[in-house]
From TrEMBL:
It comes from Sinocyclocheilus anshuiensis. It is a peripheral membrane protein. This is Prostaglandin G/H synthase 2. Pathway: Lipid metabolism; prostaglandin biosynthesis. InterPro entries: EGF, Haem_peroxidase_sf, Haem_peroxidase_sf_animal, Oxylipin_biosynth_metab. The keyword Hydrolase does not apply. Pfam families: EGF. It is an enzyme of class 1 (oxidoreductase). Residues 1-20 form the signal peptide. SUPFAM superfamilies: EGF/Laminin (SSF57196), Heme-dependent peroxidases (SSF48113). GO terms for molecular function: heme binding; oxidoreductase activity, acting on single donors with incorporation of molecular oxygen, incorporation of two atoms of oxygen; peroxidase activity; prostaglandin-endoperoxide synthase activity. PANTHER family: PROSTAGLANDIN G/H SYNTHASE, PROSTAGLANDIN G_H SYNTHASE 2.
Length: 127
């Protein structure tokens, strides 16, 4: 819709305040007349008049989000980090396999056991 708005602004040379695209970070501009507007910052992670103030969660995310060049540097200079990551995922895979097989074992065996048990107890009862 922002591309559509741009087109309308170009074609009509509109004075709509939203044509100045005041809403940042994918905020939705709502025109409120000739020179008034409102930014709908819903789900942008920002708030404020122009959706420029980051929410706390956005701040935390951008702090935690590693920059690609740093990640590249770490991966090329600290091979042992990769080793640990690989070993951890290897461990995780092994654990998951164990959990899945033991769980499916648990899922499969009780009905068999119960059927056996029920059959036997029914037999014992009917005797
Ligand atoms: C929001 O954007 C408008 C237009 O660019 C600007 O005049 C106004 O100062 C901005 N407000 C804030 C709080 O940054
Ligand atoms: C990861 O595991 C390999 C063998 O699977 C081992 O040789 C290596 O030392 C381990 N690396 C770390 C950091 O534990």
């Amino acid at each position: 819709t922002s591309g559509m708005n741009k087109l309308i602004c170009l074609v009509l040379l509109s004075n709509d305040p939203c044509c100045a695209q005041p809403c940042q970070n994918q905020g939705v501009c709502l025109s409120k007349g000739a020179d008034a507007y409102e930014c709908d910052c819903t789900r942008t992670g920002y708030y404020g008049e122009n959706c420029t103030t980051p929410e706390l969660l956005t701040l935390i995310k951008s702090t935690l989000k590693p920059r690609p060049n740093i990640v590249h540097y770490i991966l090329t200079h600290y091979k042992w980090i990769w080793d640990i990551i690989n070993n951890i995922s290897f461990l995780r895979d092994a654990i998951m396999r164990y959990v899945l097989t033991s769980r499916s074992h648990l899922v499969n065996s009780p009905p068999t056991y119960n059927a056996d048990y029920n059959y036997k107890s029914w037999e014992a009862y009917s005797n």
